[in-house]
Amino acid sequence: MTDRNKIKMKTPLVEMDGDEMTRVLWKLIKDILIFPYVDLNTEYYDLGLENRDRTNDQVTVDSAMATKKYGVAVKCATITPNAARVEEYHLKEMWKSPNATIRALLDGTVFRAPILVRGITPYVPNWKLPITIARHAYGDVYKNVEAAVPAGAKAELLITNPDGTEKKHLIHDFSESAGIIQGLHNLDRSIESFARSCFNFALDTKQDLWFSTKDTISKTYDHRFKDIFRDIFDKEYAEKFQKAGIEYFYTLIDDAVARVIRSRGGYVWACKNYDGDVMSDMIATAFGSLAMMTSVLVSPDGIYEYEAAHGTVQRHYYKHLKGETTSTNSVATIFAWTGALRKRGELDGNTALSDFADKLERATLDTIESGTMTGDLAAMSTLPEIKKADTEGFLQAVQENLEKLL
Question: What is the pLDDT of residue 4?
Protein backbone atom coordinates (compact mmCIF):
# COMPACT_ATOMS: atom_id res chain seq x y z
CA MET A 1 0.00 0.00 0.00
CA THR A 2 1.10 3.56 -0.63
CA ASP A 3 1.01 6.04 2.24
CA ARG A 4 -2.16 7.49 0.72
CA ASN A 5 -3.90 4.11 0.93
CA LYS A 6 -2.85 3.28 4.47
CA ILE A 7 -5.68 2.83 6.97
CA LYS A 8 -6.08 6.00 9.01
CA MET A 9 -6.67 6.05 12.78
CA LYS A 10 -8.92 8.64 14.42
CA THR A 11 -7.84 8.17 18.03
CA PRO A 12 -4.43 7.10 19.34
CA LEU A 13 -3.66 3.76 20.91
CA VAL A 14 -1.52 3.82 24.03
CA GLU A 15 1.63 1.85 23.15
CA MET A 16 3.70 0.39 25.99
CA ASP A 17 7.07 -0.96 24.84
CA GLY A 18 8.81 -3.64 26.87
CA ASP A 19 11.88 -5.76 27.45
CA GLU A 20 14.28 -8.31 25.98
CA MET A 21 13.18 -10.59 23.12
CA THR A 22 9.60 -9.35 23.14
CA ARG A 23 10.94 -5.82 22.59
CA VAL A 24 12.73 -7.14 19.51
CA LEU A 25 9.49 -8.82 18.35
CA TRP A 26 7.59 -5.58 19.01
CA LYS A 27 9.65 -3.62 16.49
CA LEU A 28 9.63 -6.42 13.91
CA ILE A 29 5.84 -6.77 14.10
CA LYS A 30 5.35 -3.06 13.58
CA ASP A 31 7.87 -2.86 10.74
CA ILE A 32 6.66 -5.95 8.85
CA LEU A 33 2.96 -6.30 9.65
CA ILE A 34 1.57 -2.90 10.68
CA PHE A 35 3.46 0.10 9.27
CA PRO A 36 3.02 -0.96 5.61
CA TYR A 37 -0.77 -1.03 6.02
CA VAL A 38 -1.79 1.27 8.89
CA ASP A 39 -0.99 4.92 9.49
CA LEU A 40 -0.31 3.96 13.08
CA ASN A 41 -1.33 6.56 15.65
CA THR A 42 0.00 5.79 19.13
CA GLU A 43 0.96 7.61 22.30
CA TYR A 44 4.23 5.84 23.08
CA TYR A 45 5.57 4.90 26.52
CA ASP A 46 8.83 3.03 27.03
CA LEU A 47 8.24 0.52 29.84
CA GLY A 48 11.62 -1.09 29.29
CA LEU A 49 13.32 -1.72 32.63
CA GLU A 50 16.05 0.88 32.08
CA ASN A 51 13.49 3.63 31.43
CA ARG A 52 11.33 2.57 34.37
CA ASP A 53 14.45 2.88 36.53
CA ARG A 54 15.37 6.24 34.98
CA THR A 55 11.89 7.67 35.68
CA ASN A 56 11.50 6.02 39.10
CA ASP A 57 8.67 4.02 37.52
CA GLN A 58 6.65 7.17 36.82
CA VAL A 59 6.44 6.09 33.17
CA THR A 60 4.29 3.11 34.21
CA VAL A 61 1.84 5.36 36.03
CA ASP A 62 1.81 7.78 33.08
CA SER A 63 1.01 4.96 30.65
CA ALA A 64 -1.92 3.83 32.80
CA MET A 65 -3.28 7.39 33.00
CA ALA A 66 -3.01 7.68 29.21
CA THR A 67 -4.93 4.40 28.88
CA LYS A 68 -7.70 5.88 31.02
CA LYS A 69 -7.76 8.88 28.66
CA TYR A 70 -7.82 7.01 25.34
CA GLY A 71 -9.55 3.77 26.38
CA VAL A 72 -7.33 1.24 24.55
CA ALA A 73 -3.69 0.21 25.06
CA VAL A 74 -1.33 -2.44 23.74
CA LYS A 75 1.53 -3.61 25.97
CA CYS A 76 4.75 -5.52 25.34
CA ALA A 77 5.96 -8.02 27.93
CA THR A 78 8.05 -6.46 30.70
CA ILE A 79 10.51 -7.61 33.36
CA THR A 80 9.44 -7.68 37.00
CA PRO A 81 12.87 -7.45 38.62
CA ASN A 82 14.17 -9.80 41.29
CA ALA A 83 17.48 -9.46 43.12
CA ALA A 84 19.42 -10.86 40.17
CA ARG A 85 17.80 -8.37 37.78
CA VAL A 86 18.58 -5.47 40.12
CA GLU A 87 22.25 -6.39 39.87
CA GLU A 88 22.14 -7.15 36.13
CA TYR A 89 20.51 -3.82 35.22
CA HIS A 90 22.12 -1.77 38.04
CA LEU A 91 18.68 -0.67 39.26
CA LYS A 92 17.99 1.89 41.98
CA GLU A 93 15.53 -0.51 43.59
CA MET A 94 13.47 -3.65 42.95
CA TRP A 95 10.60 -2.03 41.04
CA LYS A 96 7.10 -3.47 41.26
CA SER A 97 5.43 -5.44 38.48
CA PRO A 98 4.23 -2.99 35.80
CA ASN A 99 1.22 -5.22 35.20
CA ALA A 100 0.24 -5.04 38.88
CA THR A 101 0.61 -1.25 38.89
CA ILE A 102 -1.49 -0.87 35.75
CA ARG A 103 -4.14 -3.33 37.01
CA ALA A 104 -4.49 -1.38 40.24
CA LEU A 105 -4.74 2.00 38.53
CA LEU A 106 -7.29 0.77 35.99
CA ASP A 107 -9.20 -1.40 38.50
CA GLY A 108 -9.08 -4.10 35.84
CA THR A 109 -9.73 -7.81 35.48
CA VAL A 110 -7.39 -10.00 33.40
CA PHE A 111 -9.00 -12.23 30.74
CA ARG A 112 -6.77 -14.90 29.16
CA ALA A 113 -7.80 -17.16 26.29
CA PRO A 114 -5.94 -19.70 24.12
CA ILE A 115 -5.43 -19.16 20.39
CA LEU A 116 -6.64 -22.30 18.63
CA VAL A 117 -4.97 -23.43 15.42
CA ARG A 118 -5.19 -26.60 13.34
CA GLY A 119 -2.27 -28.93 14.01
CA ILE A 120 -1.87 -28.01 17.69
CA THR A 121 -4.11 -30.47 19.54
CA PRO A 122 -5.19 -29.72 23.15
CA TYR A 123 -4.10 -32.27 25.73
CA VAL A 124 -7.77 -32.54 26.72
CA PRO A 125 -9.23 -34.06 23.53
CA ASN A 126 -12.82 -32.84 23.98
CA TRP A 127 -11.80 -29.15 24.20
CA LYS A 128 -13.01 -27.77 20.88
CA LEU A 129 -13.55 -24.10 21.81
CA PRO A 130 -11.40 -21.64 23.82
CA ILE A 131 -11.78 -21.39 27.59
CA THR A 132 -11.24 -17.82 28.81
CA ILE A 133 -9.94 -17.36 32.36
CA ALA A 134 -11.06 -14.18 34.14
CA ARG A 135 -8.69 -13.57 37.05
CA HIS A 136 -9.50 -11.17 39.85
CA ALA A 137 -6.32 -9.14 40.06
CA TYR A 138 -6.52 -7.75 43.60
CA GLY A 139 -5.86 -8.95 47.12
CA ASP A 140 -5.87 -12.46 48.56
CA VAL A 141 -2.44 -14.12 48.90
CA TYR A 142 -0.82 -11.43 46.68
CA LYS A 143 -1.35 -8.79 49.35
CA ASN A 144 -1.07 -11.10 52.34
CA VAL A 145 0.60 -10.51 55.68
CA GLU A 146 2.29 -13.61 57.10
CA ALA A 147 4.37 -14.55 60.09
CA ALA A 148 6.07 -17.44 61.81
CA VAL A 149 4.60 -18.24 65.23
CA PRO A 150 6.69 -19.75 68.05
CA ALA A 151 5.45 -22.64 70.12
CA GLY A 152 3.42 -21.50 73.11
CA ALA A 153 2.09 -18.39 71.36
CA LYS A 154 -1.50 -17.60 70.52
CA ALA A 155 -2.51 -15.89 67.24
CA GLU A 156 -5.61 -13.72 67.09
CA LEU A 157 -7.31 -11.64 64.41
CA LEU A 158 -7.93 -8.12 65.74
CA ILE A 159 -10.45 -5.75 64.14
CA THR A 160 -10.51 -2.16 65.37
CA ASN A 161 -13.87 -0.59 64.48
CA PRO A 162 -14.30 3.08 63.44
CA ASP A 163 -15.52 3.93 66.95
CA GLY A 164 -12.35 2.45 68.49
CA THR A 165 -13.95 -0.71 69.83
CA GLU A 166 -12.08 -3.93 69.22
CA LYS A 167 -13.11 -7.44 68.32
CA LYS A 168 -10.78 -10.45 68.49
CA HIS A 169 -11.04 -13.80 66.74
CA LEU A 170 -8.81 -16.68 67.79
CA ILE A 171 -6.88 -18.03 64.80
CA HIS A 172 -5.04 -20.79 66.64
CA ASP A 173 -3.46 -21.62 69.96
CA PHE A 174 0.08 -22.77 69.15
CA SER A 175 0.65 -24.28 72.59
CA GLU A 176 1.77 -27.65 71.22
CA SER A 177 3.83 -26.62 68.21
CA ALA A 178 5.31 -23.66 66.39
CA GLY A 179 3.63 -22.78 63.10
CA ILE A 180 2.75 -20.10 60.60
CA ILE A 181 -0.14 -17.70 59.98
CA GLN A 182 -1.30 -15.72 56.98
CA GLY A 183 -3.72 -12.80 56.78
CA LEU A 184 -5.68 -12.15 53.59
CA HIS A 185 -8.04 -9.35 52.65
CA ASN A 186 -10.21 -8.11 49.81
CA LEU A 187 -12.52 -5.15 49.19
CA ASP A 188 -16.22 -5.11 48.32
CA ARG A 189 -15.45 -2.35 45.83
CA SER A 190 -12.83 -4.45 44.05
CA ILE A 191 -15.07 -7.55 43.97
CA GLU A 192 -17.89 -5.44 42.52
CA SER A 193 -15.57 -4.16 39.77
CA PHE A 194 -14.44 -7.73 39.10
CA ALA A 195 -18.04 -8.89 38.78
CA ARG A 196 -19.06 -6.10 36.41
CA SER A 197 -15.96 -6.61 34.25
CA CYS A 198 -16.79 -10.33 33.96
CA PHE A 199 -20.47 -9.76 33.15
CA ASN A 200 -19.59 -7.09 30.56
CA PHE A 201 -16.92 -9.27 28.95
CA ALA A 202 -19.32 -12.22 28.71
CA LEU A 203 -21.90 -10.00 27.03
CA ASP A 204 -19.27 -8.50 24.71
CA THR A 205 -18.04 -11.94 23.61
CA LYS A 206 -21.47 -13.63 23.81
CA GLN A 207 -20.19 -16.45 26.02
CA ASP A 208 -21.58 -18.07 29.17
CA LEU A 209 -19.93 -16.96 32.41
CA TRP A 210 -18.92 -19.44 35.12
CA PHE A 211 -17.80 -18.28 38.57
CA SER A 212 -16.33 -20.52 41.27
CA THR A 213 -15.11 -20.18 44.87
CA LYS A 214 -15.09 -22.45 47.95
CA ASP A 215 -17.92 -20.82 49.91
CA THR A 216 -18.86 -24.06 51.69
CA ILE A 217 -15.55 -23.88 53.58
CA SER A 218 -14.89 -20.12 53.54
CA LYS A 219 -18.33 -19.11 54.74
CA THR A 220 -17.51 -15.40 55.13
CA TYR A 221 -14.61 -14.61 52.77
CA ASP A 222 -15.52 -16.66 49.69
CA HIS A 223 -19.24 -16.35 50.35
CA ARG A 224 -18.86 -12.57 50.06
CA PHE A 225 -17.62 -13.03 46.47
CA LYS A 226 -20.57 -15.31 45.68
CA ASP A 227 -23.12 -12.92 47.18
CA ILE A 228 -21.75 -9.83 45.43
CA PHE A 229 -21.72 -11.59 42.05
CA ARG A 230 -25.30 -12.80 42.51
CA ASP A 231 -26.59 -9.43 43.71
CA ILE A 232 -25.06 -7.50 40.81
CA PHE A 233 -26.19 -10.11 38.29
CA ASP A 234 -29.79 -10.10 39.50
CA LYS A 235 -30.03 -6.29 39.63
CA GLU A 236 -28.04 -5.29 36.55
CA TYR A 237 -27.39 -8.17 34.16
CA ALA A 238 -30.04 -10.92 34.34
CA GLU A 239 -32.23 -9.37 31.64
CA LYS A 240 -29.21 -8.54 29.43
CA PHE A 241 -27.94 -12.14 29.66
CA GLN A 242 -31.38 -13.50 28.81
CA LYS A 243 -31.63 -11.29 25.72
CA ALA A 244 -28.11 -12.31 24.65
CA GLY A 245 -28.96 -16.01 25.10
CA ILE A 246 -26.11 -16.63 27.53
CA GLU A 247 -26.01 -17.96 31.11
CA TYR A 248 -24.38 -17.01 34.41
CA PHE A 249 -23.45 -20.13 36.38
CA TYR A 250 -21.99 -20.44 39.90
CA THR A 251 -20.40 -23.57 41.35
CA LEU A 252 -17.68 -24.64 43.79
CA ILE A 253 -14.09 -24.45 42.52
CA ASP A 254 -13.55 -28.23 42.71
CA ASP A 255 -16.79 -28.89 40.83
CA ALA A 256 -15.79 -26.26 38.26
CA VAL A 257 -12.46 -28.02 37.62
CA ALA A 258 -14.27 -31.31 36.98
CA ARG A 259 -16.79 -29.61 34.68
CA VAL A 260 -14.02 -27.80 32.77
CA ILE A 261 -12.19 -31.05 32.03
CA ARG A 262 -15.40 -32.66 30.73
CA SER A 263 -16.54 -29.61 28.73
CA ARG A 264 -16.12 -28.61 25.08
CA GLY A 265 -14.99 -25.10 26.09
CA GLY A 266 -16.53 -21.89 24.80
CA TYR A 267 -17.15 -19.95 28.03
CA VAL A 268 -15.57 -17.46 30.45
CA TRP A 269 -14.42 -18.95 33.78
CA ALA A 270 -14.11 -16.30 36.51
CA CYS A 271 -11.74 -17.11 39.37
CA LYS A 272 -10.40 -15.45 42.49
CA ASN A 273 -6.83 -14.17 42.29
CA TYR A 274 -4.86 -17.29 43.21
CA ASP A 275 -7.26 -19.67 41.47
CA GLY A 276 -7.01 -17.57 38.30
CA ASP A 277 -3.21 -17.48 38.47
CA VAL A 278 -3.00 -21.28 38.65
CA MET A 279 -5.86 -22.14 36.30
CA SER A 280 -4.76 -19.76 33.54
CA ASP A 281 -1.40 -21.58 33.33
CA MET A 282 -3.17 -24.94 33.41
CA ILE A 283 -5.49 -23.88 30.57
CA ALA A 284 -2.60 -22.43 28.55
CA THR A 285 -0.48 -25.56 28.89
CA ALA A 286 -3.37 -27.92 28.20
CA PHE A 287 -4.27 -26.02 25.02
CA GLY A 288 -0.64 -26.05 23.88
CA SER A 289 1.51 -23.08 24.87
CA LEU A 290 1.63 -19.77 26.77
CA ALA A 291 2.97 -18.31 23.53
CA MET A 292 -0.49 -19.03 22.07
CA MET A 293 -2.43 -17.23 24.83
CA THR A 294 -4.03 -13.80 24.63
CA SER A 295 -4.40 -11.52 27.63
CA VAL A 296 -6.58 -8.43 27.97
CA LEU A 297 -7.10 -6.25 31.03
CA VAL A 298 -10.65 -4.88 31.14
CA SER A 299 -11.91 -2.26 33.59
CA PRO A 300 -15.58 -2.12 34.64
CA ASP A 301 -15.95 1.20 32.81
CA GLY A 302 -14.78 -0.24 29.49
CA ILE A 303 -11.03 0.42 29.28
CA TYR A 304 -8.94 -2.24 27.50
CA GLU A 305 -5.23 -3.10 27.65
CA TYR A 306 -4.00 -5.95 25.42
CA GLU A 307 -0.79 -7.95 25.81
CA ALA A 308 0.69 -11.41 25.36
CA ALA A 309 0.23 -13.80 28.27
CA HIS A 310 3.92 -14.81 28.34
CA GLY A 311 7.09 -13.11 29.56
CA THR A 312 10.07 -11.49 27.87
CA VAL A 313 11.66 -14.72 26.49
CA GLN A 314 14.98 -14.06 28.24
CA ARG A 315 16.80 -17.13 26.92
CA HIS A 316 16.14 -16.22 23.29
CA TYR A 317 17.18 -12.62 23.96
CA TYR A 318 20.62 -13.69 25.16
CA LYS A 319 21.00 -15.78 21.99
CA HIS A 320 19.92 -12.76 19.94
CA LEU A 321 22.55 -10.57 21.64
CA LYS A 322 25.21 -13.12 20.64
CA GLY A 323 24.08 -12.91 17.02
CA GLU A 324 22.64 -16.42 17.07
CA THR A 325 19.49 -17.34 15.15
CA THR A 326 16.30 -17.50 17.19
CA SER A 327 12.92 -19.02 16.45
CA THR A 328 10.71 -17.05 18.83
CA ASN A 329 6.94 -17.43 18.73
CA SER A 330 5.39 -13.99 18.09
CA VAL A 331 1.75 -15.10 17.80
CA ALA A 332 0.50 -13.85 21.19
CA THR A 333 2.22 -10.49 20.65
CA ILE A 334 0.69 -10.20 17.16
CA PHE A 335 -2.71 -10.92 18.70
CA ALA A 336 -2.12 -8.24 21.34
CA TRP A 337 -1.75 -5.74 18.49
CA THR A 338 -4.75 -7.09 16.59
CA GLY A 339 -6.91 -7.05 19.72
CA ALA A 340 -6.04 -3.42 20.40
CA LEU A 341 -6.45 -2.35 16.76
CA ARG A 342 -9.81 -4.12 16.51
CA LYS A 343 -11.11 -2.54 19.72
CA ARG A 344 -9.86 0.89 18.61
CA GLY A 345 -11.71 0.38 15.34
CA GLU A 346 -14.89 -0.72 17.12
CA LEU A 347 -14.89 2.27 19.47
CA ASP A 348 -14.15 4.74 16.66
CA GLY A 349 -16.49 3.19 14.09
CA ASN A 350 -13.42 2.51 11.94
CA THR A 351 -14.41 -0.75 10.20
CA ALA A 352 -11.32 -0.71 7.97
CA LEU A 353 -9.08 -0.92 11.04
CA SER A 354 -11.14 -3.71 12.65
CA ASP A 355 -11.22 -5.64 9.35
CA PHE A 356 -7.43 -5.32 9.04
CA ALA A 357 -7.02 -6.79 12.55
CA ASP A 358 -9.24 -9.74 11.58
CA LYS A 359 -7.22 -10.37 8.42
CA LEU A 360 -3.88 -10.18 10.23
CA GLU A 361 -5.08 -12.81 12.71
CA ARG A 362 -6.33 -15.00 9.88
CA ALA A 363 -3.01 -14.62 8.04
CA THR A 364 -1.12 -15.63 11.20
CA LEU A 365 -3.19 -18.78 11.67
CA ASP A 366 -3.05 -19.58 7.93
CA THR A 367 0.75 -19.44 8.12
CA ILE A 368 0.87 -22.01 10.92
CA GLU A 369 -1.80 -24.22 9.36
CA SER A 370 0.13 -24.25 6.06
CA GLY A 371 3.08 -25.77 7.98
CA THR A 372 5.32 -22.72 8.57
CA MET A 373 5.87 -22.10 12.27
CA THR A 374 8.43 -21.35 14.97
CA GLY A 375 10.37 -24.08 16.74
CA ASP A 376 8.14 -24.40 19.81
CA LEU A 377 5.08 -25.14 17.66
CA ALA A 378 7.04 -27.37 15.27
CA ALA A 379 7.90 -29.60 18.24
CA MET A 380 4.21 -30.23 19.04
CA SER A 381 2.43 -29.90 15.69
CA THR A 382 0.62 -32.88 14.19
CA LEU A 383 0.68 -31.49 10.63
CA PRO A 384 2.28 -33.84 8.08
CA GLU A 385 4.66 -31.26 6.60
CA ILE A 386 6.36 -28.67 8.80
CA LYS A 387 8.79 -25.90 7.93
CA LYS A 388 10.55 -24.43 10.96
CA ALA A 389 11.02 -20.68 10.54
CA ASP A 390 13.29 -18.30 12.41
CA THR A 391 11.85 -15.29 14.24
CA GLU A 392 11.84 -12.85 11.34
CA GLY A 393 11.14 -15.52 8.73
CA PHE A 394 7.86 -16.42 10.41
CA LEU A 395 6.73 -12.77 10.37
CA GLN A 396 7.64 -12.48 6.70
CA ALA A 397 5.59 -15.60 5.97
CA VAL A 398 2.65 -14.03 7.80
CA GLN A 399 3.05 -10.91 5.68
CA GLU A 400 2.90 -12.99 2.49
CA ASN A 401 -0.40 -14.51 3.61
CA LEU A 402 -1.70 -11.12 4.73
CA GLU A 403 -1.05 -9.70 1.25
CA LYS A 404 -3.32 -12.42 -0.20
CA LEU A 405 -6.18 -11.34 2.10
CA LEU A 406 -5.96 -7.59 1.52
Answer: 55
